Amino acid sequence: MLHLEHLNLVVEDIPTTLNFYRAAFPHWSVRGGGEGAWHGKPRNWVHFGDDYQYLTFNDDGVGQNRDLTGHQVGLAHFAFVTSNIDAVIARLAQAGFLADKDGAIDEFRRNVYYLDPNGYEVEFVQYLSDIPSQRNRYDEA
Questions:
Q1: Whose CA is closest to 76, among 41, 119, 117?
Q2: Distance CA 131, CA 136 (A)
Q3: What are the φ/ψ torsions at residue 125 (nearest 5 degrees)?
Q4: DSSP of 81-124, one letter per residue?
Q5: Inter-CA distances, 18 with 6, 12, 41, 118, 130, Å
Q6: Nearest alpha carbon to residue 98 among 77, 119, 115
Q7: Helix (H) or strand (E) holding 35
Q8: Could you identify which of 27, 85, 104, 108 might form a hypothetical disulfide with 134, taking C-beta atoms 3.0 to 4.6 angstroms apart as the criterion?
């Protein structure tokens, strides 16, 4: 069996980034961190997550993230499943983060997209069915 353990994201500022992710994941915490260098440039890093999954944030980022309206190669978005999408939306709103766009209307799932403080698009999805053929269906255009 394989599962995703972590994503390693280069960010502009770790405390600002943590504000967003702490609102989305109140049960996660900083698991560790430190200082180092990446190809000659100093950086700080933290692992933010639980005992099984986490996000790594490195603060040595420069420039802008990929233009999500363009067609450059790079990360388009990443997604997290929640059992209560309304609670995620409320926590993020209380922390000052508003949704960037709603997901497609679907009878078997609800989803919403946010831009984190670094321009990464983060999707939150709540499945309304446990049946794989319903959860994973898509309409071909």
A1: 119
A2: 9
A3: -130, 140
A4: E-S-HHHHHHHHHHTT---SEE---BTTEEEEEEE-TTS-EEEE
A5: 15, 11, 22, 11, 31
A6: 115
A7: strand 29-38
A8: 108
φ, ψ (nearest 5 deg) of residue 11: -125, 170
User: Tens digits of per-residue pLDDT, 26-83?
Assistant: 999 999 999 999 999 999 999 999 999 999 999 998 888 999 999 999 999 999 999 9
Write the CB contacts of 95 (distance below 8 Å, at least 6 apart in sequence).
19, 20, 22, 23
Q: Which two three-digit tokens encode residue 69?
A: 């309206």
CA atoms within 13 A on the CB side of 64: 5
The amino acid sitting at 15 is: P
Q: Does the pLDDT value for residue 17 go beyond 90?
A: yes
pLDDT number for residue 140: 58
Task: Name, in order, each residue with C-beta under 8 angstroms of 113's C-beta and a sequence gap of 6 or more.
Answer: 77, 99, 100, 101, 102, 103, 121, 122, 123
On average, the pLDDT of the chain sits at 94
